Amino acid sequence: MNSPVKLSCQNLWKIYGVEPDSFFSQANGKVQDSAGHAVKIRDTGHIVACGDVSFDVHVGEIFVIMGLSGSGKSTVVRCLSRLVEPTAGEVLLDGEDLLKKSASELIDIRRHKMGMVFQSFGLMPHLSVMDNIAFPLKLQGMSVPDRRDRAQRVIDLVGLTGREKSYPRQLSGGQQQRVGIARSLAVEPDIWFLDEPFSALDPLIRREMQNEFLSIQNQLQKSIVFITHDFLEALRIADRMMIMRDGQIVQIGTPADLIVNPADDYVADFTNDVPVTRVLTARSIVSTLEDPNQGTDLPKVEEQCCLEDLLPVLAESSGARVCEADGTVLGIVTADNVIRALARETASNEL
Amino acid sequence: MNSETRRWLLWIILIALLLLFQLLGTKNNWFLAYPKGWEVPFSTVLNHAMNWVVEWFGWFFRGLADIFSIPVSWVQQFLQWLPWPVVIAVTAVISWAASGWRLALFSTLALFYMVVVGYWSESMNSLSLVIISVPLAITTGFVFGVWGFRSEQAEKVIVPMLDMLQTIPAFAYLLPILLLFGFGPVVGLIASVLFAFPPMVRNTMLGLRRVPIEIVESGLMSGATPRQLFWQVRIPSASRQMLLGANQTTMAAVSMVIIAAVIGGTADIGWEVLLHVRRAGFGESILAGIVIAFLAMVIDRITYGFVGKESQLPDEEVGYFHRYRYLILGSATALIVFLLANFIPALREWPQSLEVYPADTMNEWLESFVLSWSGIIGTFKSISFFYIMLPVREGLINTISPYSWGFEFTSPLRIGYGVAVILLAGWFAYKRRINLALTILFMGVLLFFGLTKLSWLILLLMASLLGYQLGGIKLGIGTLLALLTLATAGVWTEAMLSIYLCSIAVMISFLVGGLIGVIASEVAVVSKIVRPINDTLQTMPLFVILIPFVMIFKIGEFSALLAIIAYAIVPSIRYTEHGLRSVPSDVIEAGTSMGCTRWQLLTQVKLPLALPVIMLGLNQTIMYAIAMLVIAALVGTNGLGQQVYIGLSDGDFGVGIVAGLGMAFIAMIADRFTQAWNEKRQAVYS
Ligand SMILES: Nc1ncnc2c1ncn2[C@@H]1O[C@H](COP(=O)(O)OP(=O)(O)O)[C@@H](O)[C@H]1O
Ligand SMILES: [Mg+2]
């Protein structure tokens, strides 16, 4: 990722229990051996909801947090938005420490820079779709015509045109979440948090919503932290992802990294069921060029083209050239590369 | 010896001791009747304290009373001055706004009834008290509710205070207020505010607490300031629960305004009923009672209508007229009717010649009814009296006589009775139903000697032990202290008389009500018939329920018993039906697929699963019975209720408040016992 860092979170801890603060001598949460420290804390009967979590989210990136339920995903994102106060650590938004902001500064940031979508939607039952979406704007004191205009734009964006006057209870789950998405976008945030936004929906609807989410992101290019417990969902959406267990990071990387090089069995367990051909991209199996003129006659494929799409190309020719979006050639792939990658995968799965 | 056995042994010892005491003791033994010499003159002390307060702070309360009486008399005068059709028109429009034209029609007819019968001015006097007290009670309740929601410490003080306020019988409120504030309509006002605000507090706290966390978080993420979060997120999300609280508060206020009539001095509708009930004027009291019932029903349906209404905030796009349609319509109608009334005198004041007041006819009808059915009425009354009430109160030993049962309770018979009880208990003990066996033994002793004649000492120990076993050491000690207070205050006998009447009423209500509930849950038609009757009984001010029973069975304990049953049976029916109906359908389907017959399904599947809800119904039945017991004192009972009433009519603060607190203690013990028992049972399941 070359774009600048939007949101950075360093050594973030959140401890629940009687005396959560007693475990940290310094507020930045830096400790020598974080795993050992977490064990120590747990032994005193405290809950480590999030332990020494650090990662960066770049501008325009979709960063996915994945893990089983109870692994601390919601806690992390709530710390980032300061819905819960972290016990220790730093959260930098555009380089400024969010945890040092006063209450009124925080309100201001939430009014202009942050948007959040909740698993169970969190819609106000007493407000119509229009009023729900315009609610954050109303809180800012925006005039009625202005906020109607702005709300109408996001309503159109999420495809709810015509339902403005309905109440949440009159909508289906998918539609309600559209309202939730529209509301979080109404303030035109830079950083967008989504906490399992599609988990409460039926599989078919979920897929449709994922597509729409991607197409919205294509237009808006927000910096996103997206939480899910569904690995396939993560695969479809993530630029990079982070896997959590018991409040701690297990691995951070691109989806392909995780599949090819799972850090441990926990990660491998997630990746096992995924059809490899869907995950491995041309980029991950490419061999570098031996000389710049090699294979100039071969067809071009994009770097994130997955094997599923690559196989028909290889059936037609002896290999393919892999290019980045700007046309730079990374190398070539041949049927050989594919076979070796698949063999590696099958072997690791059988272990 | 394991703890189970030890527990049983303890009970057997207590029962044996009881039997021993009963056999050995004579009337004046210290262990049978609490000795006079051991009594502590609580009531005298309380009276002195009250005198002192009145002497020193009386000016303050009288001042308050003067201040409060100003708006009351304004509203009273205003309502009296308004031509009756204006009031009806406005009420109709409000009803329409609340729930539609049906309610508007009902309200119109109900209010018109008050006009035609000639109770308009009395009704308006009662209504004006309600109009002032309801907003006060709702605001008070809201403020306390928010406070309790915000601070856990406050909640720890508020909740027990509410428990107390809600279990102290309504009459007992009136006396201290009367002494502090002096005679006048303000007493009814203050009493009704105090009596009515607790449900609002509870519902406000509950509603605010139940706002889903995600809604609060989404409010926060929308950038709400703390104030915006409270007023624009929490309060609107909790509004339905709070409206429910407002509805309950309103109904309690209505009921207290009516009850407050017993102190007299107000020409309101409650007083009218009371007057005629005491004079045994059937027709008059029914006619006035119906007014109260209508008043309560109209107010209930209107407030409830607003609860059920879809919350539609004024939409900015709809026109001015549409948004304020009810307001405009209401004012326009009121104005037109008002102008009309200036030309048509009958609209200003309903002419006496047009009044319909068929009291005499009704009285004649009742007389002939009672006369022609006197045989059955008499038999019913004496059977219940000699075979149920007297044995429980005085014991078989004092009841069975040639005059009542037709034979003498001879020694062989007594021995036979004892042997039968022991055999029955032994049979159940053999079947490992030890608790049942113990209950039978105890009931055997109780029925033989009578509840009021049983040793206070053993009863006190038994209740405390039961409390301890049901709810732990706290409940045990609490029970002990509460009952000891009753004994030392010298109201043990009265307390037993109250318990005796209440428990018979509760038992019958629970059995009959449970049966009706079961039938209603199985047969849709029955459910349809029972529901409106229940609704009506529940909104009916307690006074009114007394009327028919008093008229047919005359003043006395028996009428009181029937009135208590009529009121306390409602929760038994409701909860039983509700519990049975809300058994999850997959469990029922599983049962059906295993080949259960309908009867098996009911007894083996539904009833056990519905038991927690049914027990909640029992709890409510007890509470309702105790609430009604005080009102029933008006028609002659002998327990604490009567003491409260005596204290009130003699202006004896000490006597009234001691008896009132005594009833509150009994109510609280009964409440905690049933709850603890329920929890214990549920703990077995999970
Ligand atoms: N307010 C709280 N008090 C105590 N423990 C909590 C609280 N909130 C979350 N936890 C605990 O922190 C852990 C992580 O929770 P959460 O972040 O909600 O997980 P996830 O979103 O991944 O399902 C869980 O074990 C949960 O029980
Ligand atoms: Mg979560």
Write the layout of secondary structure elements.
The complex is a heterodimer of chains A (351) and B (686).
Chain A: E1 5-16, H1 34-43, E2 47-58, E3 62-66, H2 73-80, E4 88-93, E5 96-97, H3 103-112, E6 114-117, H4 129-140, H5 144-157, H6 173-186, E7 191-195, H7 203-220, E8 223-228, H8 231-237, E9 240-245, E10 248-253, H9 255-260, H10 265-272, H11 276-279, H12 282-285, E11 300-302, H13 307-316, E12 319-323, E13 329-334, H14 335-350
Parallel strand pairs in A: 3-8, 3-9, 6-7, 7-8, 11-12
Antiparallel strand pairs in A: 1-2, 1-4, 4-5, 9-10, 12-13
Chain B: H1 3-24, H2 42-81, H3 84-99, H4 101-117, H5 120-150, H6 152-167, H7 170-181, H8 185-210, H9 213-221, H10 226-259, H11 269-278, H12 282-308, H13 320-323, H14 325-343, H15 345-348, H16 359-394, H17 396-399, H18 411-430, H19 434-449, H20 456-471, H21 473-488, H22 492-522, H23 524-539, H24 542-553, H25 557-581, H26 585-593, H27 598-632, H28 640-650, H29 653-685
Describe the 3D structure:
The complex is a heterodimer of chains A (351) and B (686). Chain A contains 14 helices and 13 strands. Chain A is an alpha/beta fold and 351 residues long. In chain A, helix 5 (144-157) crosses helix 6. The two termini of chain A are 33 Å apart. Chain B is mainly α. Chain B has 29 helices and no strands. Chain B has helices spanning 3-24, 42-81, 84-99, 101-117, 120-150, 152-167, 170-181, 185-210, 213-221, 226-259, 269-278, 282-308, 320-323, 325-343, 345-348, 359-394, 396-399, 411-430, 434-449, 456-471, 473-488, 492-522, 524-539, 542-553, 557-581, 585-593, 598-632, 640-650, 653-685. Chain B starts with a helix and ends with a helix. The A-B interface holds A 78, 81, 83, 107-108, 110-112, 114-116, 118-128, 131, 135-136, 139-140, 144, 165, 167, 180, 183-184, 187 and B 212, 214-215, 217-225, 228, 232-233, 236-237, 239, 310-311, 313, 315-316. The complex binds adenosine-5'-diphosphate (ADP) and magnesium ion.
